[in-house]
Design a protein that fits this description.
By secondary structure, this protein is α/β, with parallel strands linked by helices. The chain contains nine helices and seven strands; from the N terminus they run βββαβαααββαααβαα. Strands 1, 2, 3, 4, 5, 6 and 7 form a seven-stranded mixed sheet that branches. α1 packs parallel to α2.
């Protein structure tokens, strides 16, 4: 029996822009993303049994093919040509679900990292990212981490410098809206305002937090249609936050 433990950081959007809607229905995007210190803990164990099994301390997390971690394990074995062996995945959930923080994607990325180590395949990051892309646009970034500009459907990266030391406050309301519904509403409403991604990039290079906070923006925020988002932003700013924005795709 072999085992690996991987911390899976969440993803935070500093900006999110839709650049076009493709004929296949996908939205091409331009986003500035960072990996934050809020992490799930993923333990992958290989044994002599058969099948891929997942367990989680959050009862809301699916334990079948609806879990990206299971699909990540399957695609790893398929792409590497290795025989699928008994694979147990245990997820200690700390990243809230339906919060735009890519918790499921982070868990999937952690499984790919763990299997790459346990199976001794030694695949470079670029090969793992190519393997990850069919699992969802956020999974390649969750493998890479850091701070990046992501374009396309999440497969094109340009690395940016780390932010200065700072605290991020993440507030998750009970209400939520699906990613598909948010994109659909954005298509219906149009996008009257776009983030200034170039100025945000310059602000990050300057390493000045007030400048970075000034350029936070997510085009899906108006499309979410949730009054609680504006209320949470107001409360955060009243308590001294330099900036507040809805993160990611709900």
């Amino acid at each position: 029996m072999k085992q690996a433990v991987v911390l899976a950081p969440c993803k935070v959007n500093l900006t999110l822009d839709i650049t076009r809607r493709r004929s296949d229905g996908y939205h091409e995007m331009e986003m500035i993303l960072l990996a934050a210190d809020l992490c799930d803990r993923v333990t992958v164990t290989l044994h002599s049994g058969r099948g891929i099994r997942v367990e989680c301390d959050d009862q809301m997390v699916p334990l079948d093919e609806g879990n990206l971690a299971v699909r990540a394990a399957r695609i790893f074995y398929q792409r590497t040509g290795l025989p699928a062996q008994g694979t147990d995945i245990a997820i200690e959930k700390r990243i809230p679900m339906e919060a735009g923080l890519a918790g499921g994607s982070a868990d999937a990325a952690a499984v790919l990292v763990a299997l790459n180590a346990l199976c001794g395949t030694g695949l470079p990051l670029e090969e793992l990212e190519a393997m990850a892309l069919p699992l969802g646009a956020d999974v390649p970034f969750c493998l890479r981490g850091g701070v990046v500009i992501a374009r396309g459907i999440g497969e094109e990266f340009r690395i940016l410098p780390a932010l200065p030391d700072c605290f991020l406050v993440i507030a998750k309301p009970w209400e939520g809206v699906s990613t598909a519904a948010a994109f659909r509403r954005a298509d219906e409403l149009g996008i009257p305002r776009h983030p200034d991604t170039q100025r945000m990039e310059m602000a990050i290079w300057s390493r000045k937090l007030p400048k970075i906070a000034k350029h936070l923006y997510n085009v899906l925020e108006p499309a979410a249609g949730l009054p609680i988002i504006s209320e949470l932003k107001r409360l955060l700013l009243e308590q001294g936050a330099l900036g507040a924005v809805m993160t990611g795709r709900l």
